[in-house]
Every structure is written in structure tokens, then in C-alpha cells.
Specification:
Blueprint: E1 9-14, E2 37-43, E3 47-48, E4 54-55, E5 64-67, E6 73-77, E7 80-86, E8 90-93
Antiparallel strand pairs: 1-2, 1-7, 2-5, 3-4, 5-8, 6-7
Length: 96
């Protein structure tokens, strides 16, 4: 199944978090927080401004991002969990 986000929304897939701390302690699943890092899977067309024109999104498919902790709507596509966010919920793009 494919989804194309509308407006200034983006579809992301959360990236897996480390199972160990730097000291080597293994963190159980019940104690782990959901990661705030994700990869963009799809982007919308952009936000419609008051004058009727569209402002395209600065984000692109394939970029890795950091987003706010309690943002977005969780959905399941083909058995994989995804998140739909607004562009304003993105804190930054992770540079390689």
C-alpha cells in the first residue's frame, strides 16, 4: 500500500535505537523510549498560503530527521509502523 501525505505533512519510518548503552548495559524493550530519529518515506505537495500559492517543503525523501517527542500520528503500512508528521514538528535534518 502506498500513501501520499497531503499539504505540509511527511510520512516517516522510525529508525531503530541502540539496544545497549555505551557502557555495555543491555536495555530491555519495556524500558526503551521510542526513537525521535526517522527516515522520510514520502512528502506532501506543500503548504497552501493565504494568497493561494503553495510553499514547497524543504524536506526530501530519504533524509534522516529528528522530530519532537509527542508529535504525529502512528499508522501501520504492510505490517511496518510509520508516523505522519507536520513539517513544523521536524527539529532538524541529520547531516552525514
Amino acid at each position: 500500500m502506498k500513501i501520499r501525505p497531503l499539504g505540509d505533512r511527511i510520512l516517516v519510518k522510525r529508525l531503530e535505537q541502540e539496544q545497549k548503552t555505551k557502557g555495555g548495559i543491555i536495555i530491555p524493550d519495556s524500558a526503551q523510549e521510542k526513537p525521535q530519529e526517522a527516515e522520510i518515506v514520502a512528502v506532501g505537495d506543500g503548504r497552501v498560503l493565504e494568497d493561494g500559492s503553495k510553499r514547497r517543503l524543504e524536506l526530501k525523501v530519504g533524509e534522516r530527521i529528528l522530530f519532537t517527542k509527542y508529535s504525529g500520528t502512528e499508522i501501520k503500512l504492510d505490517g511496518t509502523e510509520h508516523l505522519i508528521l507536520k513539517e513544523e514538528d521536524v527539529l532538524g535534518v541529520i547531516q552525514k
